[in-house]
Amino acid sequence: MSADKYEYDLFTIGAGSGGVRACRVAAAHGAKVAVAEEHRIGGTCVIRGCVPKKMLVYGAHFAEDLEDCQSFGWNIEGKSFDWVKLRDNVMADVDRINGVYRKTLESHDVTIFDERAEIVGPHEIKLASGKTVTAKYILIATGARPHIPGCSGGELGITSNEAFHLDELPKRILIAGGGYIANEFAGIFNEFGTKVTIINRTDTLLRSYDQSLTDRLLQISVKKGIDFRFNAEFENIKQLDNGCLRVCMSNHDPIEVEAVMYATGRVPNTEGLGLETAGIELGEKGEIKVDRFSKTNVDHIYAVGDVTARVQLTPVAIREGQAFADTVFGDKPTAVDHSCIPSAVFSHPPIAAVGMTEGEAKNALGQVKVYQSDFRAMKNVVAGREERSLIKMICDGANDKIVGIHMIGPEAPEIMQAAAVAVKAGMTKADFDATTAIHPTVAEELVLLK
Question: Is residue 430 within 8 Å of 400, Cβ to Cβ?
């Protein structure tokens, strides 16, 4: 493929997970490709999201492992934790992965512009340097950013972006939100010795997950020392003379902390991209509206990832980027199936799920069968830790087809990846029953459910 009329076949704005995949695959199909990124190659996931977050989760797990190992005969003396060392090691690996992403693009002859880009004409993109280029197709993959609640003193808080770069751990932190980011960072900070309080404007945590799991996480989190304040909204935040923050909220007494962190959702990055000039239609929350092939209302402009109003997960953005490139440049029309997407919350302990919750299944199917196992993992038994795991399987009452699996407990996300294949394939409870268990494992409970 050649760009006879235009300088590029594809110009991508944003080099996050979805944008990088789209560029790489489009180039592999023979397209002449360029990408503009004003921050760093890799986007939210690699630079300030799931990758560094998971590394902090690993670091946090050692707090309980060092405590539990004594029951297994280990003597640990003089243990201590160095936040700065962990932070710097994590950021060093982020730098490494950033370099890998850049080399991937370069090896596919993708032109990289390390600057902001804006659409200024039907096929024209203007770079921050003043240079203007043209492209037959334009892909917007600019992702999303943390939402910051509006209140007096709101600028005194931080988001997950800044949490990775703290000079020191706060003694007390207030985390606002009830979603996965709030619960994950609550677990991380709590294991590192910070006193954590979560405030949420409703009385529900992780609303897209099965209530049995969220109830169990709440119970375990409280026992670990995390405080929760529900039905609370910010009124104001004030800096005190001692450097601490005094937070006033509705329905609860004020609280004094060293840090406030917002985990109250994410906002699509659509401002300043020239979308109005291009005539691109946006939704109520500023997201780009697209069809099943990621095409906007403008035929030659597409969008993938968190900048759209679909599922804000890195693997989804990657699949959307792949599908876009295959559709437009590979002569292989592909639409991503956004149903039955597995997901995880890397809380302490982690949650993982795929398919419908019990409530969703009852509403959609009427008659359902629920199988579950409520148990204490062998490691927790020996360690004297009362924490219990829960595995739940939801089946269609008419044919026993599995429509949902939900887990909370050790290694739940690792187990769920394989279980999700079975659910996606339409397997039944009988198929699981006919599978021999691997003993002793947590995962064997999936084929032993009653």
Answer: yes
Exposed, middle or buried: residue 100 (CB in 10 Å: 0-12, 13-18, 19+)?
Answer: exposed
Strand partners, 200: none
Q: Burial level of 108, CB count in 10 A (0-12/13-18/19+)?
A: middle
Does domain 349-447 sit in CATH 3.30.390.30? yes
Q: Which residue has the tokens 């996606």?
A: 424
Q: Measured in Å, how far apart are the chain's first and last C-alpha atoms?
A: 57
Write out the catalytic residue numbers.
439
Q: What is the mean pLDDT of residues 34-49?
A: 92
| Fold agreement (154-264, 349-447) | no
Q: What are phi and psi of 53, to 5 degrees?
A: -65, -45
Residue 201: per-residue pLDDT? 95
Q: Which residues 6+ apart lie within 8 Å of 378 measured at CB?
A: 440
Q: Given a cut of 60, is residue 25 above it in pLDDT? A: yes
Q: What is the residue whose two structure tokens read 């021999």?
A: 436
Question: What are the extents of the domains in the chain?
Answer: 8-146+267-329, 154-264, 349-447
Spatial separation of the C-alpha atoms in residues 260 and 177, rounded to whole Å = 11
- 309 vs 265: CA distance, rounded Å: 13
The CATH number that domain 154-264 falls under is 3.50.50.60
Give the count of beta carbons closer than 10 Å to the beta carbon of residue 225.
9
Helices (H) and strands (E) in the chain, counts: 13, 22
pLDDT digits (tens, 9 = 90+) for 89-126: 999 999 999 999 999 999 999 999 999 999 999 999 99
Q: Say yes or no: domain 8-146+267-329 is CATH 3.50.50.60.
A: yes
Is the pTM here over 0.85, yes or no? Answer: yes
Helix axes of 83-107 and 50-68: crossing angle, nearest 10 degrees:
140
Q: What is the pLDDT of residues 248-305, one digit of tens each?
A: 999 999 999 999 999 999 999 999 999 999 999 999 999 999 999 999 999 999 999 9
Mean pLDDT of 155-175: 97
Which pLDDT belongs to residue 249? 97
